[in-house]
Batch of 2 targets.
Target 1
Amino acid sequence: MISADLILRGAGQVITCTGTSGGDAALAPIPDGAVAVREGSIVWVGPEADLDRSVELLPGGEVIDAAGGLVAPGYVDAHTHVVFAGDRAREFSLRCAGASYQELLAAGGGILATVRATRAASEEELVQGAAQRLARLLSEGVTTCEVKSGYGLTVADELKMLRAVRALGRVQPIGLVGTALPLHALPPDAGDRSAWIERMLSELLPVVVEEGLARFVDVFVEKGAFTPDEARQVAKAAKAHGLGVRLHVDQLTAGGGAELAAELGAATADHLEEITPAGIEAMAAAGVTATLLPVSTLYLKCPRYAPGRALADAGVRLALGSNCNPGSAMSESYSLALSLACLGNGLSAAEAFYAATAGGAAALGLEDRGQIAPGRRADLVVHGASSVEHLAWHMAASHARVVVIGGRVVHRADHLPARCG
Ligand code: NIG
């Protein structure tokens, strides 16, 4: 008998995401399944019919009835900028009236507007703002979230942002992975461009490593932002500090970014709306994960979505991000991202769901989560839905009735229907 302090039973399906590829079989569902947890880890998963003869509930343990809904791994949101201050509502209206994202940045707005507000904010104010965004993500079933800096753009302000991420890890339950993004935009007070880059790398990264503030370093490679050569310089410094590399590439213009990610052995290449067939081939050959960010494709009215279908068919591993940020995706709706991964990126619901869970965990180097299997962290969500297809179909609405992180119930929405559809 296996002892458990938490049991989730009554699931119409347990979606384990333990298959090997991102295709439909990868969800490896267990119909009428159950999951048992002890001390924050999954200790058993199987058909409910086997539960009572396999698992005993410890005194004081808790049982959650999924009432015919789905039990699934928590979502791993693989790309966000949830730490920021200020708002860009006026910019939104200007873009709706025809101004472009790049024009606004070139005129000192866009990312640079958020930089001014973020520099003026205290670490505590950043924590308070981001905590509200994370609470919304949690209510959607997000249990792990990557968070970038990139709105400080001085060594001190980038550190303030990353320390805010660390503080958020202590005051709210979502597991956080920090990414340093010092090359997000060149600030007007940078002075000499190459000296500024050199300073950001030589002064920021050692402190990031010493304080354990980030796993990755990221660069926005784009016309009007940073060049492939500058990204090469960052990747070299990141590797010297034992940090992984991620890149924002091929978002607004085709710049050979996917090929660059392959050349640099990046963990992920993110956005990719303008990737070319050669870029897809290069990413597949180099094993770079593609992070799809379809909410920003919609929000920026980009002419096309990243070709998720072609990437999946080429064997590129996929992750999915909300990209929650004030400029290109002011939304915490991970449900919207999931549906757009199907509608825009061309994935099946199963592929999108796998990218949203196991794919994201793998992209962030988190082998302990993203799947339901003995030994994994008990980051689990009870969705009031009959299938993963239902989750993709019923867009931009949370279905998460119960969210468990590390074996602890951290969110309940009992008013949601137990088994829609
Ligand atoms: O991932 N593309 C660059 N960075 C963010 C947007 C940041 C902003 O506009 O504030 C992104 O879309």
Target 2
Amino acid sequence: MLRNDKLDQWDRENFFHPSTHLAQHARGESPTRVIRTAAGSHIEDRDGNRFLDAFAGLYCVNVGYGRQEIADAIADQARELAYYHAYMGHGTEASITLAKMVLERAPANMSKVYFGLSGSDANETNVKLIWYYNNILGRPEKKKIISRWRGYHGSGLVTGSLTGLDYFHKKFDLPLAQVLHTTAPFYYRRADRAQSEADYVASCVADLEALIAREGADTIAAFIGEPVLGTGGIVPPPEGYWQAIQGVLRKHDILLVVDEVVTGFGRLGTMFGSDHYGLEADFITIAKGLTSAYAPLSGSIVSDRVWKVLERGTDENGPLGHGWTYSAHPIGAAAGVANLKLLDDLKLIENVQSVGSYLRQSLAEALGDHPHVGEVRGEGMLAAVELIKDKEKQIYFDPADKAVARVSAAMMDQHKVIARAMPQSDILGFAPPFCLTREEADTVVAATQKAVKSVLG
Ligand code: PLP
């Protein structure tokens, strides 16, 4: 293939990248990485460097790269019918089939799925529907949404507000007033080192109860959370957390939105994180794993109890005033159908269970005793290595040290393995494609061990 030597320059002059230091990039101080091709768990850049992608893009290429079956489904759909809308009862074979496949896999109390394009817009839809729901029920004051610090739910106006990371708020006038944040369930980072896990859960519950009491339960519509905190640090909840939180929500008639953008379709070794933790959701947000990112598609799955109120709403008020041009886009839907079929045919969730636990165990064995590794944790094919300056005294690195950024850079540059420096705190994240082999897991662990040693000693 002919090489375009101007790409670096074109990139700096024209391309506004998301989540990027714009000034440094425009000045050419950070490299433009042009990714050219990919297969299985590996990506390759245009200079021929091959990397083992232990974060599956942005934890989304779940079935792995280069799947012919999905590429064919997309091409066939584009040739047959590239687009038709889904307004006023229209559909395509792909979108209707995918809706059925999603509901067959979702928890039993779920009723219908609305398709969007991104995790952010799906959560935006959820918030709108929650407000609509309470208006139909004659509770116009019950509108606030509780999220958790360190939660990640998108980067729009409402969804960026739900996200509980300062980096997504600073200078954007977020969070908006209707959004409240409660304690992140992060046992390792608890303030009181002597606190038991059970006492810690009780303190998370007490914080939530206090917030509800302060605001008034009649002003709070919903609580949103990821089964396992993702972008906020890959933190599985402490034992008993979700059961206790659900008890509080039921008591105060607060809806539960389970954001399964990362955990949906197998990442925890079960179809949904809701299955894993016994969550009974009113809304489930899906995106990434729905198509394994072969095409943009997301969804808001609504429960029977929500659906009944939405039906009542349209009987009383006429058609629902909500939708995007690209809702249920046929190309995304065709990718979704082929992707979910592949997930079953290749038994990839079984691989998550076996290779995921092997990866986590191997990371723990290789790094758990390192003086600058505070904790190795995870669930399914999701793992994190938390770096710390002083393990005994629980002193974290100064952000200016850029500890995790240096480790992930060393992994990539020296060992050709991609792990993600998570955006808050010194946490190295792993979320490989589900097709990861044990040999590839060994490569990831060896690269992490060497990079931690070379950067932190
Ligand atoms: N929800 C969760 C749990 C996510 O991890 C993400 C993205 O990483 C989103 C929502 C937002 O999805 P998107 O980036 O597709 O808007």
